[in-house]
Structure formats: structure tokens, C-alpha cells
Design a protein that fits this description.
Number of domains: 2
Order of helices and strands: HHHHHHHHHHH
Helix content: over 70%
CATH superfamily of the largest domain: Tetracycline Repressor, domain 2
Shape: globular
Structural class: mainly alpha
């Protein structure tokens, strides 16, 4: 009886994993509107009843797939942010330290292997094209708290800067990060072979410096209101 229960649990876990992986592939290829629970079940070699059992709805299925991919990256971001705070002898972190903790975990993820690099780049690219309501739901669930954390950290490091300017330039920094990673697969062709797609950490280090200097120059520029 115990053996049967163990086998049943293992089978359910395996099916769930296949459904999550199928959701990621179809979402990357077709977007939210281009997949259904039935198409995911077929891709996963499972039945629609299994998809309903594990997730209950397409929304829940796609959001769970994204949670499994985003949550470890966000945890790593907070870990690096805390490490920087613990090792910093001055009151506030530098802009570089803040953006390093935000961006470097993405580099760690895409450096794992070519499959991970391609999958993450495709998922990020999809964030530019999905329906507004879905993007809002995704942002609220996975990014609103982390965005607040980074806003507060940047505001502490740049006292006297209006909150509007902090938000504007954090938005531009995040957009640069997402755009660079979404387009990373085109790097070789775009640079006529001068830069390779597998040069992940050189890309990440340049990106951190790019957004750091852009942020600092931007918040100190006098804009017409």
C-alpha cells in the first residue's frame, strides 16, 4: 500500500513537471493567448484531466510556470542585496552594488546551459507582447515587491532626488536589462560575429555598468517639467 502511494505521488510529480515544462515551451513559442490547457496537456503527453487536477485554469498554470522560474531569481537577488549590505561599511549601497544584485542572478541563470539561455530569453521576450491584463497580474504577483525593494534601496542611496526621477530611471534600467536579455540570441548576427552568444558574464558586467552610469547621469540631469 505504501509502495503504491509512493508510486502514485511520484507519478503525479512527474506529470506536473512535464506540464510545467510544456507550458514554458508553448508560452515561449506562442504567448499566453496562443496556448490552451488542452495544447499543454498534449505537449506534455498527459490528459486534460491531469492539467485540470494540477492547476485548475490556464491562468494558474502559466503563472505557476513563471513562479517556478522567477522566484529563485528573486530570492537570489535579495540574497546578493543582503550580502552587499552586510559587507558595506558605509551607510548606503552604491548604485553599482544595487544593480549588480538585480542583474547578476539573470546572468547566473542563462549561463547554466544553452537551453536555459534560450528558454529565459524567449520568456523575457514574451513580456513585451502579452496582453495588458496578464502583464499586470504577472507584475503584481512576481515583481511588485521586488520593485519596491529596489526603489527604496536606490532612494536611500540618492537622498534628495525626487521619487519621480528614481522611478523613471529604475524603469529605464529594468527595460534595458530585459531588452538586452530578450535580444541576446541575436547578438552574433547583430555584431557581425564580433560578440558570441555564450559570452554571458561579459554581457552581464557591461550591462550592470551601463545601467549604473545611465541611472546616475539620468537622475542628476535637469529635465524640463
Amino acid at each position: 500500500m505504501i509502495i503504491n502511494e509512493t508510486q502514485t505521488t511520484k507519478h503525479k510529480q512527474t506529470t506536473r513537471k512535464r506540464l510545467i515544462e510544456a507550458t514554458a515551451r508553448l508560452f515561449a513559442q506562442h504567448g499566453y493567448n496562443g496556448l490552451t490547457m488542452r495544447s499543454v496537456a498534449e505537449e506534455a503527453r498527459a490528459n486534460i484531466a491531469a492539467a485540470n487536477y494540477h492547476f485548475g485554469s490556464k491562468d494558474a498554470m502559466v503563472l505557476e510556470m513563471l513562479r517556478e522560474r522567477v522566484q529563485p531569481i528573486n530570492h537570489r537577488r535579495l540574497e546578493l542585496l543582503n550580502q552587499a549590505r552586510n559587507h558595506n561599511s558605509v551607510k548606503h549601497l552604491s548604485t553599482y552594488e544595487i544593480f549588480h544584485s538585480l542583474i547578476f542572478p539573470l546572468g547566473e541563470e542563462i549561463a547554466k546551459n544553452a537551453k536555459s539561455r534560450c528558454s529565459l530569453a524567449q520568456l523575457i521576450a514574451r513580456t513585451f507582447t502579452e496582453p495588458v491584463q496578464f502583464i499586470e497580474k504577472m507584475h503584481h504577483q512576481f515583481f511588485s515587491q521586488i520593485a519596491d525593494t529596489y526603489y527604496r534601496e536606490l532612494a536611500l542611496s540618492h537622498p534628495g532626488i525626487p521619487s519621480k526621477e528614481i522611478y523613471w530611471h529604475l524603469h529605464l534600467a529594468v527595460s534595458s536589462m530585459l531588452g538586452a536579455l530578450a535580444q541576446h540570441r541575436r547578438l552574433y548576427d547583430f555584431t557581425q560575429g564580433n560578440c558570441e552568444e555564450n559570452e554571458v558574464f561579459p554581457l552581464i558586467e557591461r550591462l550592470i555598468h551601463f545601467v549604473t552610469h545611465g541611472f546616475e547621469q539620468g537622475i542628476n540631469h535637469k529635465f524640463d517639467q
